[in-house]
Amino acid sequence: MAKASLKPKAASKGKAKAPLPAKAPAAKQPAGVPGVEKKKSKRRYHGPPAPRQEKKPRGPAPVNPPGSRQARKAEEEAAQATTATIAGAPATQQADWLWDRYRAESGASELERQGLTAGCFAPAHPSEWLEESLASLPEQAAFLGRGGQHVPVGSPAVLVVTGAAIRAVSLIRQMPAVNKACKVGKLFAKHFKQAEQEAVLSSTVMHVAVGTPNRLIKLIEAGALKLGRLRYVVVDVAMDAKKRTVLDMAETKSDFWTLFASHLKPKFESGAQFVLTSCKVDKDGPQ
Predict the structure, then answer these.
(1) Maximum distance among all alpha carbons in the chain?
(2) pLDDT tens digits along 58-88
(3) What cellular component GO annotations does this protein have (predicted)?
(4) Is 0.85 topped by the overall pTM?
(5) How many domains does the chain have?
(6) Is residue 57 part of a domain?
C-alpha cells in the first residue's frame, strides 16, 4: 500500500487566494442593559467656571510719568527741599544731625562729641546762593583779608567741602564778588594735579578754598594747605541726582570724617565753626 505524502499540495499557479471575509462591527449595546459597563470619562470636573472680572476703567494719565524729565526734576526739587530744611535749622538740630552721621560712621561715643556741639555751628542764614550765605557770616572783612593784617600763603579762612568736582565748580561760579575780591582755591582732583595745586598754595594768598575731602587730606598732609587761619568750614549738604550728599556717598563719606577727625576737629575746639549749605545747582550764580 502506497504511503500518503505529508507535503502540502502546492497552490495552483494563476489562482489567487480568496480574501478573508471582513468582520462585522459589533453591535452597540443600548444604555442601561445589565451586564454592560459604561466607560468612565477621562475629563475631570474642576468646578464651575470663574466669573469674568469686569475691566476697571483707566484713570487719567499721571502728570509726570515715572522716568520722565519732569519726574526727575520734581524728585530733585524735593531732595533739595529736604536738605534746605537742615541747612536752615537751629544750631542744636544741625549739631545732632551731623553727630548722628559721625557716630554711625565711626562708632564714636558721646564722650567724643567735641567739635560737633551746638557751639561749633554758625547761625543759620540759608540762601539759594553760596555767596549770600558767606556775606551773612560775621567778621567777613577779617577772614577775607580786608583788615590790613599780613595773610600767609595757602591758608584760607573759609574751606568749602563738597562731594564732587563738578559741584565744586558750580559753587565757585556762585561767588562772583568773592572771586573778584580775593583768590578762590580750586582744591579738587578733576583736571588739577596735586603737584600743581601744591605750587599754587605755596605762592598764593587765598581766603576761600573749595575742595573735595580726599584731595584736601592729601594737600594738608603734604603741608601745602595750612589751617592756621581757618574760621569756617562750609559743608555742602545739597543732594545730587541720586539723593546723596557728601556725607552719604560711599566714595566721600569716609574721607570726610577722616578729614574732620584728623585735621579739622582741633580747629572747632579752638573756635572754628561749621556752616551747612544746600545752595541750588546753577551755572550762572547770583545776578
Answers:
(1) 162
(2) 766 666 677 777 777 777 676 666 667 888 8
(3) 90S preribosome; nucleus
(4) no
(5) 1
(6) no
